[in-house]
TrEMBL record:
One GO cellular component, as annotated: plasma membrane
Single GO BP term: heme O biosynthetic process
GO MF: protoheme IX farnesyltransferase activity
NCBIfam families on file: cyoE_ctaB, PRK04375.1-2
Other information: Carbon 2 of the heme B porphyrin ring is defined according to the Fischer nomenclature.
Stated name of the protein: Protoheme IX farnesyltransferase
Pathway assigned in UniProt: Porphyrin-containing compound metabolism; heme O biosynthesis; heme O from protoheme: step 1/1
Known EC number: 2.5.1.141
Keyword tags: Cell membrane, Heme biosynthesis, Membrane, Transferase, Transmembrane, Transmembrane helix
Membrane topology: Multi-pass membrane protein
Compartments in which it is found: Cell membrane
One Pfam family named in its UniProt record: UbiA
Enzyme class: transferase
Amino acid sequence: MSDASLNTTSYDNEAGFGDFFALLKPRVMSLVVFTAFVGLLVAPVSVHPIIGFAAILFIAIGGGASGALNMWWEADVDALMKRTRKRPIPAGKITAGEAKAFGLTLSVMAVVMLGLAANFVAAGLLAFTIFFYVVVYTMGLKRRTPQNIVIGGAAGAFPPMIGWAVATGGISIESVLMFSIIFMWTPPHFWSLALFMNDDYTKAGIPMLPVTHGRRVTRAHILVYTLLLAPVAVGAGFTSIGGPVYLTASVLLNAWFIAGAVKIWRRSEEAAVADKYAAERKFFRISLLYLFLHFGALLAEGILRSFGMGGW
Ligand code: HEM
Ligand SMILES: CC(C)=CCC/C(C)=C/CC/C(C)=C/COP(=O)(O)OP(=O)(O)O
């Protein structure tokens, strides 16, 4: 082996900025942060842009830090799954101890800074969200019950409430409804992915619903949660954050999502295997679009309202 290749090898095993950035789960957190941003912007109290920007940054850092703590705790199972085995800890780029220190430091910093920049309700909610994702979901529920993501999914639903609290200093029916949309959306979002990632979860011994109860039961659960989600999402359209733009978007998006869930429910396992779970993969992608467009529509309605056009 030449000197040059030795150098390359040793460089590859050193942690770089990109590895620490990957610990923050940036792709998932981008949508989390977007929902927090919308929660902040649609609130009835306006925030100074610098405070707003700082608050979103601290929420993003707090969210990312919770991802790092999740990866610290999960390094053993991440090493077993194809989807996760290249993450910085199983790949040997970052030690579990470094990830833990990084996650804890950023978590404390994000909560304190959010408290100073905005208020202590928002900071308390951020601290609770990090605690819920890391301790309740990751350490407590994930390896114990197939209801892990139903209960644990609450963690991912808090960010718009945090954004709303940054602006208003409190909680209201509107912020609870934004929470409820994400809360009801998480099971179809995750279980559609679990349908085609079942082998990974089985190998890692994680009791996700398709592992414990099979894919047929999972398909039915996806449909039930999608049907329960629709009235919550459409219902938000009749509150102070809703209006004709949001309501139209929500009705169409829910019709699309329900049609997709019915298709998933009716699919036979043979058909799914034959096309390598193409419909399930598509439904998962639609789930991401569904949430992004719902919060996008709330944002559009809010912007129109500020020009005296949107809302009721
Ligand atoms: C307990 C709740 C949740 C679970 C178990 C879950 C699980 C997953 C998993 C396993 C993936 C696969 C891809 C990856 O490793 O990045 C994924 C992707 C994704 N999730 Fe979730 N999710 C949850 C909640 C959320 C929430 C609340 C959001 C945003 C509001 C979200 C946004 C995303 C996005 C944007 C992706 C695509 C990432 C990419 O393209 O790589 N998820 N989710
Ligand atoms: C502001 C703040 C603190 C936000 C946190 C938001 C939050 C809890 C999002 C959860 C989304 C997520 C990364 C789920 C992955 O589940 P998993 O950990 O089971 O997935 P994995 O198998 O990919 O690790």
